[in-house]
Amino acid sequence: ETGVTQSPTHLIKTRGQQVTLRCSSQSGHNTVSWYQQALGQGPQFIFQYYREEENGRGNFPPRFSGLQFPNYSSELNVNALELDDSALYLCASSRSGGGAETQYFGPGTRLLVL
Amino acid sequence: GIQVEQSPPDLILQEGANSTLRCNFSDSVNNLQWFHQNPWGQLINLFYIPSGTKQNGRLSATTVATERYSLLYISSSQTTDSGVYFCAVLYSGGGADGLTFGKGTHLIIQP
Questions:
Q1: Mind telling me how many Å the CA of B62 is from chain A's nearest CA?
Q2: N or C: which end of chain B has fewer CB within 10 A?
Q3: Nearest residue on chain B to A96, judged by CA atoms?
Q4: Distance CA B60, CA A54 (A)
Q5: DSSP secondary structure code for residue B15 in this structure
Q6: Residue B49 Cα distances to B46, B53, B55, B65, angstroms
Q7: Is the peptide bond before A8 cis (omega within 30 degrees of 0)?
Q8: Which one-letter DSSP state was computed for residue B99?
């Protein structure tokens, strides 16, 4: 186990709704990254939070937003859900921002949008 | 952005066989990780290996950064090795600090 936890494990929403996913980082890690993995594909980088600020962002629209809290846990918020948002959402924690550190992944949240 | 290509896309082997998985990347990197994704979706860290060679039991990995490729070796395969293996890299030239993943190699080990 990596020590990274995510909740909930599964979620079903309807198109147009909003969703919040949660991630607790491994002890001693101050950086959290979020990824989206569609079925049959590799994970795609959404954004990274380092010391409570967004530290980098992939090619995702603004309706994907996040937060990091003083204890380094993080939330991913998705507004105006679309069918294509159905995916496995993974968070990863690492010791520091900058990227040249091992990233450890949580078990993921499976989101289904109907 | 940086491109990552993994080969082969699919691999079916008998238990006990050896295998080599390849990852090619298009630019210089300061992070390269190999993962095994189990059937429940968990990404299990295998190696952090932006350069050099590492071994862990039946698994070993080599990254030749100057030639922009990495290899993952699995010896004496077991059925529990089945799953999808991903290579993921981070471009060293700056920009977003997220890993770029390849499409994976789907490995099936038959008893």
A1: 16
A2: C
A3: B97
A4: 35
A5: T
A6: 9, 7, 11, 10
A7: yes
A8: P
**Residue-level pLDDT at B65:** 95
Q: Which residues have CB under 8 Å from A13's CB, separation 6+?
A: A19, A81, A111, A112, A113, A114
Contact A45, B98 (CB under 8 A): yes
CB-based contact (8 Å) between A39 and chain B? no
Pairing of strands B19-25, B29-37: unpaired
How distant is the Cα of A60 from the closest Cα of chain B, in angstroms?
Answer: 12
DSSP letter assigned to residue B92: T
Q: What pLDDT score was predicted for residue A99?
A: 67
**Identity of the residue in A45, A101, A108 whose CB atom sits nearest the CB atom of B98:** A45
Distance CA B18, CA B58 (A): 10
Give the C-alpha distances (Å, rounded to integers) separating A18 from A46, A78, A101, B7: 17, 6, 32, 38
The alpha carbon dihedral of B54, A106, A95, B92 has a sign of: positive
pLDDT digits (tens, 9 = 90+) for B23-62: 999 999 989 999 999 988 999 999 999 999 999 999 999 9
